[in-house]
Specification:
4 helices; 8-stranded antiparallel sheet; globular; 19% helix; 355 residues; alpha+beta
Length: 355
């Protein structure tokens, strides 16, 4: 009995050892499988739809967020450059000590227009009264807000037509309608945003197709109109930390305002690095080469609508029912200045792409 009991105990012990080994092996296999899956998921682009919009990542790292429902128009914020640093001013989405807090409506990367059928989607409520709630407004603020609201326009997000991502790129296609405070429609927009990485640069193509679905559409002659990025405070020329604006024709800083050019670059310090962003205007875009509403305090806008130079007018443009207007731009986020980023060559490649 004693011998038999020893044999049974030894058998039970060996069984337990083998079971434990199989459990460890199985657990390790699962863990390795999960790790492999996570690694695979981290390669290339992802585009995750969220209640706030869409989050874009590349190789598991943040690239940009497309935000809807937080203002009177959709916008991109934050947007990260090739070294992982944020490449737009955080205000008014976030309050950062030492950051510029002018022009409440300069949100990340955004499109707006001061006058489409009389509606102003460039400004927003906060442009007049900031974050102050209605019940805290003084009489002067109430008057300012009431005046602004009579012309306030909205770029209303209707829905996403497509959200996709793969190893090479992420794409967001959305449909917007432009309205006034009464809900009267002016123009429909199909917006396609394409995110890519090319060597040491990060690219965002911002393509817009405006369609006159609800009658005639008049794009007014407005200084405050177009596709904008508000660069980080440290990059702004006026902060005198080394920020620089340069057009494709070599015009710099404040003299670049109002000029036409296929591309413009804005570079300067961000943290301990010199980084930059170029905006390229595709030859197929309306009124190419565009005029540039680019300011030394940090606003950087491609504006083909406003007459910024009386000797080189743009002027109003009317779409008849069923007609379209197309704008095509590319943002290039790069290291160094425009020469280090090789922006001239980047534009030549872009200009050859068929759209």
């Amino acid at each position: 009995c004693y011998v038999q009991r020893r044999h049974n105990l030894k058998h039970m012990h060996l069984t337990a050892v083998f079971a434990r080994r199989h459990l460890i092996i199985a657990y390790s296999a699962v863990a390795l499988g999960l790790a492999a899956s996570a690694q695979a998921a981290g390669k290339g682009f992802t585009a995750e739809k969220t209640p706030a919009g869409v989050t874009i990542k590349h190789d598991g790292q943040p690239f940009a967020e497309y935000v809807i429902g937080e203002a009177n128009k959709p916008y991109l914020f934050p947007v990260y450059g090739p070294t992982g640093k944020s490449m737009t001013r955080a205000f008014p989405m976030q309050k950062v000590e030492g950051e510029q807090i002018d022009h409440y409506h300069h949100r990340g990367i955004v499109f707006g227009h001061q006058d489409i059928n009389g509606f102003d989607s460039w400004m927003e409520r906060g442009s007049a009264v900031g974050d102050t709630p209605d019940d805290k407004l003084n009489d002067k603020q109430k008057a300012s807000l009431a005046k602004a609201m009579t012309k306030l326009g909205f770029i209303k997000h209707l829905g996403f037509k497509e959200i996709k991502a793969d190893a090479k790129q992420a794409v967001i296609v959305s449909e917007n309608v432009y309205e006034n405070v009464k809900g009267e429609k002016s123009v429909t927009e199909i917006r396609t945003l394409t995110f890519r990485v090319d060597g040491d640069t990060r690219l965002i193509d911002w393509d817009q197709e405006f369609i006159a679905k609800d009658g005639e559409v008049k794009f007014g002659d407005a200084k405050d109109a177009g596709l904008s990025i508000r660069v980080p405070t440290s990059m702004a020329v006026d902060t005198k930390k080394g920020g620089r604006i340069v057009t494709s024709t070599g015009i710099t800083d404040k003299d670049a305002w109002s000029k036409r050019a296929p591309w413009v670059d804005y570079s300067g310090p961000v943290g301990e690095e010199t980084l930059g962003v170029a905006m390229l205007n595709h030859p197929s875009s309306f009124r190419h080469p565009t005029s540039w509403h680019v300011r030394t305090y940090g606003l950087f806008t491609a504006n083909c609508f406003g007459t910024l130079d009386k000797n080189d007018p743009n002027g109003p443009h009317t779409l008849k029912p069923g007609e379209k207007l197309v704008l095509r731009h590319r943002f290039v986020f790069h290291k160094g200045d425009e020469k280090a980023g090789n922006i001239a060559a980047a534009y030549e490649r872009y200009a050859k792409e068929k759209k």
